[in-house]
Every structure is written in structure tokens, then in C-alpha cells.
TrEMBL record:
Protein name as catalogued: Shikimate kinase
NCBIfam families for this protein: PRK05057.1
Reactions catalysed, as given in the entry: shikimate + ATP = 3-phosphoshikimate + ADP + H(+)
Binding-site positions, Mg(2+): 17
Cited function: Catalyzes the specific phosphorylation of the 3-hydroxyl group of shikimic acid using ATP as a cosubstrate.
Organism this protein belongs to: Thiomicrorhabdus lithotrophica
Cofactor(s), by name: Mg(2+)
Length: 174
């Protein structure tokens, strides 16, 4: 099967946006970040959307955006960490492109998201516990839909990108 677009999935802090940008550059693909596209389209930040419309409001917007972006060819798509919460997203990503799960232990995710104020689900008294709970529910979905799983703990971004490209080349996807 020829799969043209690359979809990055994984939790908040996995590196989807960071890895995605560099990967797209190397492949000469367009880079799209679902979270950024939702913000650009609505003219509101993600925390604002959560405030005004609640998480479900955000998920509805995200599902429309994923449907649209997953149909593009030759893109690297960085998805939001919660993309797997919606069944149609899982279905579209699995069937329309090559899915890479960027895997990291919760401890690394906690460190990487420590100073961030842009992730509304982590603006609580105990973000570490939230990340643990989310991973417990979501990891089976990330794994189930992944064509490739890449461990990113203590692996610099350029090495993660190299591993993805090696695999895409060996499977003749790019
Ligand atoms: N392999 C890596 N090693 C060390 N730090 C990393 C790595 N990948 C990403 N980071 C850092 O972790 C932080 C989070 O990365 P990034 O924003 O790319 O995550 P994300 O998966 O897009 O998260 P979200 O789902 O919230 O959008 C950034 O500060 C980034 O520089
Ligand atoms: O893990 C999540 O549910 C989220 C991750 C981010 O990428 C954003 O999509 C938003 O903050 C929700
Ligand atoms: Mg991101």
C-alpha cells in the first residue's frame, strides 16, 4: 500500500510539533499542525476554545480539522495529543496515511510540558497525575493505530527524525 502522508500521534510533550517540522523539511513535505490550524481557523487559542466551548467543543472542531487535513497528500501532520479520543479520527488517520507514534515515558512528558501554559488539560494542581491517567487510557489507541513506534526518551530530535526517514525509505513510502 502506498501511503503518502505521515501522521504523528502521541501525548502532550511527545515531540509531534518539533519532530514534525524537521521531518517535513527533510522530506520536502508540507508541515501542518492540527492544533495550530484550529487556532488559525477559529481566531482563538486552544485555552480560549476550552474555556468557551468546553473540551467537547474543541473535540468537534478537531474532528473536522483532522478529516480535512488527513486527506492532503505529501504532508507531515502533527496531531493533538487527544486526537485518539475521537473514533472518526482514529479511523481516518489509520486508513489515510502512515501513522508514527512518538512514545515517551510519562516522566519525560512531565519534564517537557512543565512550563507550558498552552495545554488546558494540564492547568491543574497535579499535571503529572493527569498525564499518567491520560496515557493509561490513550496508549492502547496510539499503539493500535501506529505503523511505526519510535521511542523518544533521551533521543535528540534529529535522531528521531532520522529513524522515521530510514523506516519510510525502507518501506518505499517516500
Ligand atoms: N526528542 C526530544 N528530546 C528532548 N526534548 C524534546 C524532544 N522532542 C520534543 N522535545 C521538547 O518537548 C517539548 C514538547 O514538544 P512538542 O511541543 O513538540 O510536543 P507535542 O507532541 O507537539 O505536544 P502537544 O500534543 O501538546 O502539541 C518542547 O519543548 C520540545 O522542544
Ligand atoms: O492531550 C490533549 O487532549 C490535548 C493536546 C494538545 O495537543 C491540544 O490538542 C489540546 O491541548 C488537548
Ligand atoms: Mg504539538
Amino acid at each position: 500500500m502506498h501511503k503518502e502522508s505521515i501522521f504523528l500521534v502521541g501525548p502532550m510533550g511527545a515531540g509531534k510539533s518539533t519532530v514534525g517540522k524537521l521531518l517535513a523539511e527533510k522530506l520536502h513535505y508540507q508541515f501542518v499542525d492540527s492544533d495550530h490550524e484550529i487556532e488559525a481557523k477559529t481566531g482563538a487559542t486552544i485555552p480560549m476554545i476550552f474555556d468557551i466551548e468546553g473540551e467537547q467543543g474543541f473535540r468537534n472542531r478537531e474532528a473536522l480539522m483532522i478529516d480535512e487535513l488527513s486527506l492532503k497528500s505529501e504532508v507531515v501532520l502533527a496531531t493533538g495529543g487527544g486526537v485518539v479520543e475521537t473514533e472518526s479520527n482514529r479511523q481516518h488517520l489509520r486508513t489515510r496515511g502512515f501513522v508514527v507514534y512518538l512514545k515517551s515515558p510519562v516522566e519525560a512528558l512531565i519534564q517537557r510540558t512543565r512550563h507550558d501554559r498552552n495545554r488546558p488539560l494540564l492547568q491543574t494542581g497535579n499535571p503529572a497525575q493527569v498525564l499518567k491517567d491520560l496515557m493509561e487510557r490513550r496508549e492502547p489507541w496510539y499503539l493500535e493505530m501506529a505503523d511505526l513506534v519510535i521511542e523518544t526518551q533521551q533521543v535528540p530530535v534529529h535522531r528521531v527524525v532520522k529513524q522515521i526517514i530510514d523506516r519510510l525509505e525502507s518501506e518505499k513510502i517516500v
